[in-house]
Amino acid sequence: MPLNKKPMVLTAELVARVERTERDTSPEPGLSPLNDADYDGIAEGLLRQYSPTTFWLFAYGSLIWKPDFTSLEHRRGIAYGWHRSFCLELKSWRGTPEVPGLMLALDRGGRCEGVVYRLPDNDHHDQLRRLLRRELGYREDVPATRWIKVRTDTETVRALAFYAAPRGSDYLGKRAPQEVAQILACAAGHMGSCAMYLYQTVAKLEEHGIHDRHLWHLQELVAAEIAAMAATDTGKRA
To answer: 143 pLDDT exceeds 90?
Structure first.
């Protein structure tokens, strides 16, 4: 059951007003796309760092509402030393070079409550390679993958996580909530809008009993931005 009793202000109807599909602008200029051999090598390197008996994956954003992997169980968990942040710039996927979007990532500091998934015990290399293909598109993204400790109700597990590498070319760092809201209300790419990304993330977190106060405030701001844009458009047509 959702933890927060108040309904979201950012509704599916509001999101539909800005939902659209832009042209596919990938690969991004100046970045080096990964190939099959690269994904195999990255998976082997991560498994050399830590070869899990039980493979856990830490999800804090789209991996919760669009998992695209097989899991045997899931638990709520807290990653200390990290927080959920719209700190990565997107010029494709949910943005374009002309109107860049923002994506959630784990950034340093604080705590992040999310969901850990236990993946099947067989063929960890293949499962890891599938996850890498979903989450990483370029060689420049590779440093943003690591094993972290996540505290669940019963134990601390070591889980794979995708985070914001501070030296990455797409890392923007902290932005004022109002600035973030303006970007999320406007940006979209060939995978859809940033507003939908926020809507799905907040809704699924609430379903798991996770109330992120920052994202809750952000969905209120984005809802207000979309409503203001709709009112402006109506005024122009009048």
So the answer is: no
How large is the average pLDDT for residues 177-183? 98
Q: Which of 73, 135, 140, 179 is catalytic?
A: 135
pLDDT score for 1: 43
- Tens digits of residue pLDDT in 52-91: 899 999 999 999 999 888 999 999 999 999 999 999 999 9
- The CATH H-level superfamily of 12-237 is Gamma-glutamyl cyclotransferase-like (3.10.490.10)
Residues β-bridged to residue 162: 145
- Angle at alpha carbon of residue 78, lines to 74 and 83, rounded to 5°: 120
188-189 and 145-151 beta bridge pairing: unpaired
- Distance CA(13)–CA(6), nearest Å, equals 17
Q: Is 135 a catalytic residue?
A: yes
Region 157-173 average pLDDT: 84
- Domain range summary for the chain, segments of one domain joined by +: 12-237
Report H helices in the chain. Answer: 12-18, 36-49, 62-65, 124-135, 177-186, 194-207, 213-237
